Amino acid sequence: MAYSELLKNLDTLRTYIRSFYIYGFKRRDQFFGKSTRTYDDEKRRLENYLNSYMAFRNDENGKVTFLSIDSRHTVHNPLYKIFKAKSFTPMDISLHFMLMDILADGEKKSLNQILDEINLVYLKDFSADAMPEESSLRKKLKEYAELGLVSSEKNGKSMLYFRNPMTDLTGLEDALAFFSEVAPCGVVGSFLYDKLPVQVQKKGEVFQFKHHYITSSIESDFVEQVFEAIREHRYVIINQKRSKYERSFTNEVVPLVIYQSSQDGRMYIMAYRPHGKYFLALRFDYILGMETGAVYSGFEQKRAEFEELKSHIWGVSLNQNKKHNDTSTVHITFRVHFKDDEEFIYQRLLREKRCGSVTLLDGNNAQFDADIFDPMEIIPWVRTFICRITFFDCSEKSITRRFFDDIRKMNQLYFGEDLGGENAVQ
I want to staple 87 with a disulfide (CB 3.0 to 4.6 A). Which of 6, 102, 192, 193 is the partner? Predict the structure, then answer.
């Protein structure tokens, strides 16, 4: 069978993008469960869509292919291309242009009127085999109605169809350019941006991003489905992989809100699992498939309960809450010292405190306090103040010991010295 660059199954290519770019660079022989032909075809598709971003290196184990994307020189997210290469049949593309032309005059027409016009005007010189069936045309019109390209209304026993007017995008060039690169479903903005004239698009390339998190864009279809489930208070049935294993499992949850990491852009579903009666966080990049389920009657109650828990979540971890419905928290506190001309340190504490609180002790010292479920989530952030910390303590003493042990190890590594006492931080 001839190779095709168009996509029939987005999930397969998504798996390869994750393997090439997100999960680490894999060699050809590390793609278990996939045939050599599948690997070669998907790799060729990636090279076709992302040709200028593909790279490789040779190591002792062989050739490793990977994606290399420098946000300093990349104006538009190149991963959106996989949503714009859907496969279609000859009849699909023929019906598209015929329908858009037939309905371009704005008149409302029935299914039979449209079908007659196709057969008598557009395909009159073609054989009967080229004529579309009534069921195919009905499915296509239903699909376009769901997409918003056409609208329908009942007229007696007949259904009338008419084309929706084009959206005027004048004056929205900058908004679309920005939205398409930063929003959770930015691919929508990218599709709209593509409708602008090329000259206008060039003028709209005015944004540069210091931290451009593009990899979550390949889950845009899942993100949209979760937003829809949240709006309609529905379950979602998620097929996901375990972080360390290839095998997958099914999880039925009620999504409540979507979180996105400000550090790496990774996205999570914060959800409630009725089967185990606990809240949890699910990574979007572990999702293999998703279906929308029935309405969950207790949505508002669980959303309110999560709002209460949110004041104790530093990142996304709810591990302490998961065990036996335990909502106990761990208190963490530290103090920082800053000079008279370093008030920006205090301002940074205020800006990044999240669910914690900051107290100004005097003109040169401030204290941070927080009651959180998982203290390990906050430690990397605390370490960014390491040379200014004068006091650190955690009610979970193993965290305190680990914090100071790490400082001693770092001191021995760089200076060959031991700091001594547990709280001997300067």
Answer: 6
Neighbours of 263 (CB within 10 A): 11
Query: Does residue 79 contact residue 17 with C-beta atoms inside 8 Å?
Result: yes
Element (H, E) at 365: strand 365-372
**Long-range Cβ contacts of 168-176 (<8 Å, 24+ apart):** 169/195, 169/196, 173/200, 173/201, 173/203, 173/204, 174/204, 174/206, 176/204
Rounded Cα gap, residues 159 and 111, in angstroms: 7
pTM, full prediction: 0.80
CA distance 229 to 145: 20
DSSP 247-310: -EEEEEEEEEEEEE-TTT--EEEEEEETTTTEEEEEEGGGEEEEEEEEEPTTHHHHHHHHHHHG
Helix axes 186-194 and 220-232, enclosed angle (nearest 10): 120
- Taking only the tens place, the pLDDT of each residue in 194-242 is 989 888 888 878 888 877 888 888 899 999 999 999 999 999 999 988 7
Neighbours of 129 (CB within 10 A): 5
DSSP 73: S
The 10s digit of each residue's pLDDT in 234-276 is 999 999 887 655 678 899 999 999 999 887 888 999 999 998 8
Spatial contact of 77 and 183, defined as CB atoms under 8 Å apart: no
The pair of three-digit structure tokens given for residue 226, joined into one six-digit string? 């979760």
Q: What is the mean pLDDT of residues 305-309?
A: 92
Helix H or strand E segment including 101: helix 90-102
CA pair distance 87, 2, nearest whole angstrom: 14
For tokens 């828990």, the residue is: 309
Residue with tokens 């714009």, as numbered in its chain: 84
Q: What is the CA radius of gyration of the chain?
A: 28
Best CA proximity match to 54, nearest among 71, 39, 72, 68: 68
Q: How far apart are CA 166 and CA 211, in angstroms?
A: 34
